[in-house]
Amino acid sequence: MLSLIENLTYQDLLWLLTVAADLSITLVLFRLFGKMGLYTIVILNVMLSNFQGPKLTVIFGMQTSLGVILYSGIYFATDLLSEKYGRKEAQRAVLLGFVASLILILVIYISLLFEPSPLNLEFAQKIHNAIATIFEFTPLFILGSLFAYLVSQSVDVWIFHYLKEKTQGKHLWLRNNLSTLLSQALDTVLYTLVVWAPVVGLQTALGLAGAKYVFKAIIAAIDTIFIYWARNWDVSDQDWNTPLQEKSQKLE
Fold first, then answer.
1. How many Å apart are CA 30 and CA 230, to the nearest integer?
2. Phi and psi dihedrals of 57, rounded to 5?
3. 155 to 141, 186, 220: CA distances (angstroms)
4. Could you read off the pLDDT of 24-37 as tens digits, one per residue?
5. pTM of the predicted model, to two decimals?
6. Where are the transmembrane segments (predicted)?
7. What structural domains and CATH numbers belong to the chain?
8. Would you say 94 and 150 are in contact if contact means Cβ atoms under 8 Å apart?
């Protein structure tokens, strides 16, 4: 074990710390805000993975997209929603993430229609070009990524609850891992063929797909520890309007 740790590079350690941080933040938001915290992490991670998706890096000697970390964390949040609150709440989170992505992309595209300020042209043009570099993809790239997200996340929720019913609520580790691995496989295939292949070529896209799926499987295994930790938490999904209503009644 010691020799394995010693062989890890700075990149590898940073990746592991980022995965742990993402899952830990999910637990903190869940602990503080209940299902609203899980909704928040789904929306946040979907939008952040859109930013990080085009960034390629090398982890454990394999080239992969940095967005896979936060994107995989979405599956943990929806699985936790499924376990604690049921299928409807998990599917609602998936749809919220989808709508948030559409709004983000629309607003960014509108912002790119504005010309950079001539009063500070060098700085304004630099920022404009940076935003355009990240978001100025083809409609196929945008629609393909959203399609892959919506389909794979919906399949994940369905498989999770199918397995939960078949096992009568037992074997959380099975439904958590199997639902994620199967739906992530579907997501990887769709994303590779529809999004990456037209951009970087099929051969490069297949290489990215293989590496991404390895990392998705690792994250699925790691988040099993976290979901077992959180499943029995007594989290209060309080009505945030209640304190205001009580105050208004006292004033009356």
1. 9
2. -145, 180
3. 21, 9, 16
4. 999 999 999 999 99
5. 0.82
6. 37-53, 59-81, 93-114, 134-160, 181-201
7. 2-251 (1.10.1760)
8. yes
